[in-house]
Write a structure and sequence with these properties.
alpha+beta, calcium, Phospholipid scramblase, 12 strands, 4 helices, palmitate, about 15% helix, lipoprotein, phospholipid scramblase activity
């Protein structure tokens, strides 16, 4: 398909994306936060991309849920196709002027879109924006994100917040996995004809949701 960012052609065919965080043995044994690595797969479990988080040890261990990062996403040939950039910002509804904002680039250096947190006293809310900072979609999470023995769904909605067109799901992966390794397994469901740039931004939104709500949670309890 012409005019697609290089490396995103495969997303053109997908309506479901699985993100699996790899288990870090050192983190499991010592409790030390290590750089996160992810496999991004299709619904058949075939790896499409590989993602690596880059930041400093200070950020990971002292600023863990609100830490700044750059996540580089490469295809199976090792070519970087998506870059996700998160600055260090506040993670509290009491500071509505300094909430989360994530930038997604594809190819690296070219803006694909943004994920912007919206102020709400009760619900997690985000807006997906295109490269021109025009609103495209909304993401609305549940009042409680600590799902007990069940998946946690963040609904992807039209801008009117009435029509649900997809979801980002945190899959419950068991007591041992959540308590001792804190690894994450997510699924993204979106319309197959959604712009591939927005699909790339949805992957960035998934990483942000993971760190904000599940990084240090015992959501398997």
């Amino acid at each position: 398909t012409p005019n697609l960012p290089p490396g995103l052609e495969y997303l053109n065919q997908l309506d479901r994306i699985i993100i699996h965080q790899q288990v870090e043995l050192l983190e499991a044994i010592l409790g030390t936060e290590t750089s996160s690595k992810y496999e991004i797969k299709n619904h058949l479990g075939q790896r499409v991309y590989f993602a690596v988080e880059e930041n400093y040890c200070f950020d990971r261990n002292l600023c863990s849920p609100i830490r700044s990062f750059t996540i580089r996403i490469a295809d199976n040939t090792g070519r970087e196709v998506i870059r996700v950039i998160r600055p260090l910002r506040c993670n509290s509804c009491w500071f509505p002027c300094f909430l989360q904002e994530l930038e997604v680039q594809s190819p690296p250096g070219t803006i694909a879109g943004y994920v912007v947190q919206n102020w709400d006293p009760f619900l997690p809310k985000f807006t997906i924006q295109n490269q021109s900072k025009e609103d495209v979609l909304k993401i609305i999470g549940p009042y409680a994100t600590c799902g007990c023995f069940e998946d946690v769904d963040f609904e992807v909605k039209a801008l009117n917040e009435m029509t649900t067109i997809g979801k980002i799901s945190k899959y419950w992966s068991g007591f041992v996995n959540n308590v001792f390794t804190n690894t994450a397994n997510f699924g993204i469901q979106v319309p197959v004809d959604l712009d591939v740039r927005i699909k790339a931004v949805m992957i960035g939104a998934c990483f942000l949701i993971d760190l904000m709500f599940f990084e240090n949670s015992l959501d398997g309890l």
